[in-house]
Structures are given as structure tokens and as C-alpha cells.
Design a protein that fits this description.
With 234 residues, the protein is α/β, with parallel strands linked by helices. The protein contains seven helices and seven strands; from the N terminus they run βαββαβαββαβααα. The protein is globular, with a radius of gyration of 17 Å.
Length: 234
């Protein structure tokens, strides 16, 4: 898979452990799909058209990337299914996602990291540096081996590991109501000290989109949703 390489970024399918000159000791990873019609946010169609769903996905991804860019980090990495586009700001290294189920893709994202790593998805445009701060501060890993961000739908929106171990993710059933519980139990069964981040709502459905836009009215996502047809927004 060939990814667009923005100025100031590099593409590397192996480890990515070069230190960022900006503050922070944790690598921040975003795992995402290229926001193309028919490939993203398919549960929003209907009421959205595939093109509208893709616009919402791009806005959500932009919000996520800029929140990560504003947070302190050792490295910032986008693990991408597809090609990067003008929505990608400078400051990220881009690596391709591997094939396989979501558990394998998440595991591979961690396998490419060394040292403390926090991974988030592209479905929580309400994320902010303040929400990420507990897992990124100078004492974040002093009393924690893992950080876990539960989602309203039973999944999780963030996962941090002091020592990335792909085995902690492989085999966890994804996209089911028990995903988060199984993943968190996997961490504690491994003897890890787990601390929790706030519960957030993923954007999967039109109802989710309305709730998240109301929570983050100044976001790019809320602006994109507001530009859609009234039937989608109400």
C-alpha cells in the first residue's frame, strides 16, 4: 500500500521510535481509514448519502488529528488504510495498516511502537488534549501499565500500553457489545495496572452523530453535520 508522504513526515512499515522534539514521552497513534464514499461510516447510510458520510468521516478524522497534534507526544503516527490526503496536517508519520481483522490491525499498530504508546481511533471527534492529558503527563505511567478509554457502545476509543505487546489485542472480539469488557479483562489478567480515561461516544449512527456534535459544537464535525440535510440533523 502506497501512502502519500506529506512534507515533514515519513513512511515506515516497521518500527517508529524516533523522538519528537516537542514535549512528551508517549507515542500517540491514530488508526484510521481514508475517508472515501462507501468505505467509511456505512452505518450512517441512510439517512446520509455515501458522500455525506465520507464528509463527516473526514471532519471527524481532522478533529482527531488536530487534537493529537496539540497534545504533548514523543511521536505522532497515523496508521492508515488508504492514502493520505490534504486533511492530514504536518507532524505525523504515516504507516500502512496490515491486513486482517481489527484485532490484528490494532496489534500490528502496537507492534510498530517502542516505549509508552497511546492509540486512538478516528470516530471520536470530541476528543481533546484535555481528555488525553491523564495518559500523557509526566507521571502518566508511574502508577499505570495501561490506559483504557471505554466507549458508550461497549467498545473502547483509546488504549495505552507502557510496553506495547500485540498479544494483548489479538483474539479480542471486535465491534460487539462486550469488546471493551473483554479487552480490559485481558489487560488485568496480564497483571497490568489499568487506569481509565473518560467514557466517550463513537460516531457510528446518525443518533451518535447528533449527540457528539452537541457535545463538541465548535468541532469540524459539528460544522460538517450542520451543513447536511435537515433530516440527517434532527
Amino acid at each position: 500500500m502506497n501512502a502519500h508522504r506529506p512534507k515533514g513526515s515519513r513512511t515506515d512499515s516497521h518500527t517508529y521510535d524516533r523522538a519528537d522534539s516537542r514535549a512528551g514521552s508517549t507515542t500517540l497513534v491514530v488508526i484510521a481509514k481514508e475517508p472515501l464514499p462507501g468505505r467509511v461510516k456505512t452505518r450512517l447510510t441512510p439517512p446520509c448519502t455515501p458522500q455525506e458520510a465520507a464528509r463527516l468521516a473526514e471532519a471527524s478524522l481532522r478533529d482527531t488529528l488536530y487534537a493529537v497534534l496539540a497534545a504533548p507526544a514523543r511521536r505522532r503516527v497515523l496508521v492508515l488504510d488508504g492514502a493520505a490526503g490534504p486533511w492530514l496536517p504536518r507532524g505525523f508519520d504515516v504507516v500502512p495498516q496490515c491486513s486482517g481483522g481489527l484485532d490484528e490491525r490494532l496489534a500490528a499498530a502496537f507492534a510498530g511502537c517502542t516505549g509508552p504508546t497511546l492509540l486512538i481511533g478516528m470516530d471520536t471527534p470530541q476528543v481533546s488534549p484535555a481528555l488525553l492529558a491523564p495518559a500523557l503527563g509526566p507521571d502518566a505511567w508511574r502508577e499505570a501499565d495501561a490506559w483504557f478509554g471505554p466507549a458508550v457502545d461497549g467498545g473502547f476509543w483509546a488504549l495505552g500500553l507502557a510496553e506495547p505487546d500485540p498479544a494483548l489485542l489479538r483474539g479480542v472480539p471486535m465491534s460487539v457489545p462486550t469488546t471493551g469488557a473483554v479487552q480490559r479483562a485481558r489487560l488485568t489478567a496480564a497483571g497490568l495496572r489499568v487506569r481509565d480515561l473518560p467514557v466517550l461516544r463513537d460516531v457510528d449512527t446518525a443518533d451518535d452523530a447528533r449527540h457528539v456534535a452537541a457535545e463538541a459544537p465548535d468541532s469540524r464535525f459539528a460544522t460538517a453535520l450542520g451543513a447536511l440535510a435537515t433530516a440527517v440533523r434532527r
